[in-house]
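Q: Can someone sanity-check these two? First one:
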Amino acid sequence: MTLILVVGDMHIPQRAADIPGKFRKLLVPGKIDQILCTGNLTDRATYEYLRNITPQVHVARGEYDDRTFPISVRLEEQELTVGLVNGHLMVPGGDVDTLAATARLMDVDVLVTGNTHRFEAYEEQGRFFINPGSITGAYSPLEMQSIPSFVLMEVKLRHVVAYVYQLVNDEVVVDRIEYKKE
């Protein structure tokens, strides 16, 4: 089993001061195998914080990141392929058909995207789509009242269990979503 932290759209310090303390307490080194970040880290200290959790950090460049990160990342994880993009180049952004076309183009079973600052997870056309939202709750023109959120993804062979963490009324709420590749 592989445990993957899925985060994105932090926008520290431009739109948010920091990752909420209640989330930081949950993200301890030595428990997470790798991190997928949908971009918009915007500062080096946040990247180093993620690398402190695990040295295996994959970042897809967001529109506010420097050019050191790739636009997309494709990974093999057990018996699944995972694609990672920010989503700012997709038109229309967050659209189900556009995301499905991107997943087909990347030839992935699981597509992780960001940019909307809104958590979403669903299965479409036999593929699994995850948008972790914004871990800081940073506002965006599309989502002025963003709910801070992230996803912990357990991958075991062809099976994904996604645990969604959201900070609602200063309480951490956790939901579970499953996907199994046929």
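And here is the second, same format, sequence then tokens:
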Amino acid sequence: MDHSAHHMAAEPARCKMWMLWNTQIIDTCVVFSQWHIRSNLQFFFSFLAIVALGMLYEYLRVFSRDFDKRIGVKLRVRNARRTPLTASGRSSPERHGDDAEETGLLNGSRVMRKQGFAVPPLYRAMRAVLYGASVGLSFFLMLVFMTYNAYLIFAVILGAGAGHYILSDTIEPNGPADKGMACH
């Protein structure tokens, strides 16, 4: 009797994708196949990594907000030394009959001018990098959420909540409302 068919090599474990709420631990892949969880210990470290990523997202949000405040203070101090501009952006007195700068060229409607200070290119680049990093991380966490794994979803929420608790210990009554965790 030939038993050679019984000696086939074991098939390697594959990632399991669930499109419904699940609590699968073994053979869960997080975002890409290289992050394949094959044991409870790997799942535990993956859980901690996702909590850390949630906290990092919150850190980036708080750091970006504080960075913007520091830039605003520097620009306010720098611009306070210059001649203040009028509502039209001129340093000379307003002439009420001259609306050329205030009227749109194509439709004749009034154009609202941006409020605030022009941000120098270096600061704009630094702000763009921080913004891009936070958007990229938020999309990554959204993909983790889309594993529909209850434990991984909890890890994202736990990380965001813990990060917010640790890093957002003050509030400005007249400041802008917090955006909260969002994909973008």
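A (reply): Looked at the second one. The CA atoms of residues 164 and 170 lie 11 Å apart. Residues 40-80 form the longest helix (41 residues).
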